[in-house]
């Protein structure tokens, strides 16, 4: 991360907020799906997109919490349009149900913000029997994206407006297992490490965006895909690490981003005209940055794509 005050080529810095990086941008006519929209940077992303005129569909695990956030935003921005739909990214049944429900609404889809995630939890399996961080942070978003791609392609074609897929990754990708992705040990409890498993899932996010971008270019599709590091932020992601949480709460105001700052790069990637045509990049602090060497490995990205297709039972899109 650059020093908070340092402005990159975009003219923005780590201190910039989501409202600041989208100032003056009119998102009227755009429709977005935001996963994990009921708390943290997902909530702020939803609020700022709505503030800029975007119709936001909040994809949330807890409908009650989602509706509470929706009502709070509507009080601030009465003229906005926000819907709440149930989505549990650790369940393929839930993901397929969400995608089917979304399509039945006959809504366009310009922006897909893959924001939801869990961090460094104890070893657990999803309902589909995959390690939970891999299942939620990568595989669930991979399936969701594939199921919504035709809607995005149709929208981009009919509206003649660039579609954007934004995948929230993390600098934690640098601390994945040595081999990056343990394709043959995804569910190996004996060698499971909470933080390395998180890093693995975040590396998957970067590679997912990279391979999507490659395919869009090959298919001449007017959609971009980018990944990003939102910054170090105190959110409920750290609920499994009480010690880190305690330290973070004590010193956070000096070294960590606020939630409005944490949501900035997501909103920048989703709406800013500077990002038009930019695809397959890794962003940080509202500027283009660089992942590690594994995050740039095109062969690894292709291997992950095939692996993910196999696990989700999807066909090539």
UniProtKB/TrEMBL annotation:
InterPro entries according to UniProt: NAD(P)-bd_dom_sf (IPR036291), SDR_fam (IPR002347), TIC32 (IPR055280)
CDD domains in alphabetical order: retinol-DH_like_SDR_c_like
Gene3D superfamilies: NAD(P)-binding Rossmann-like Domain
Entry superkingdom: Eukaryota
PANTHER family: SHORT-CHAIN DEHYDROGENASE TIC 32, CHLOROPLASTIC-LIKE
Protein name as annotated: Short-chain dehydrogenase TIC 32, chloroplastic-like isoform X1
Lineage: Eukaryota, Viridiplantae, Streptophyta, Embryophyta, Tracheophyta
Gene, per the UniProt record: LOC104707442
């Amino acid at each position: 991360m650059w020093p908070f005050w340092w402005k990159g080529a975009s003219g923005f810095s780590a201190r910039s907020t989501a409202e600041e990086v989208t100032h003056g941008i009119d998102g009227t006519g755009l429709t977005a799906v935001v996963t994990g929209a009921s708390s943290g940077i997902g909530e702020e992303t939803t609020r700022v997109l709505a503030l800029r005129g975007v119709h936001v569909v909040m994809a949330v695990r807890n409908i009650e919490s989602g509706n509470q956030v929706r009502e709070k935003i509507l009080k601030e921005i009465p003229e906005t349009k926000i819907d709440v739909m149930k989505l549990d990214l650790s369940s393929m049944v839930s993901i397929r149900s969400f995608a089917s429900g979304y399509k039945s609404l006959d809504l366009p889809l310009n922006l897909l913000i893959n924001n939801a995630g869990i961090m460094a939890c104890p070893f657990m399996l999803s309902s589909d029997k995959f390690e939970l961080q891999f299942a939620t942070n990568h595989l669930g978003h991979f399936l969701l994206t594939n199921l919504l791609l035709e809607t995005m392609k149709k929208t981009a074609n009919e509206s003649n407006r660039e579609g954007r897929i934004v995948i929230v990754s993390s600098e934690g990708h640098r601390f994945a297992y040595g081999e990056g992705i343990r394709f043959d040990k995804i569910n190996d409890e004996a060698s499971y490490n909470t933080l390395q498993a998180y890093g693995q899932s975040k590396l998957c996010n970067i590679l997912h965006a990279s391979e999507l971008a490659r395919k869009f270019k090959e298919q001449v599709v007017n959609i971009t895909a980018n990944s990003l590091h939102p910054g170090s932020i105190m959110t409920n992601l750290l609920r499994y690490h009480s010690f880190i949480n305690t330290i973070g709460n004590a010193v956070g105001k000096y070294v960590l981003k606020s939630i409005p700052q944490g949501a900035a790069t997501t909103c920048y990637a989703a709406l800013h005209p500077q990002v038009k045509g930019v695809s397959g990049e890794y962003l940080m602090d509202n500027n283009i940055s660089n992942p590690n060497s594994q995050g740039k490995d095109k062969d690894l990205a292709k291997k992950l794509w095939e692996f993910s297709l196999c696990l989700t039972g999807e066909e090539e899109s």
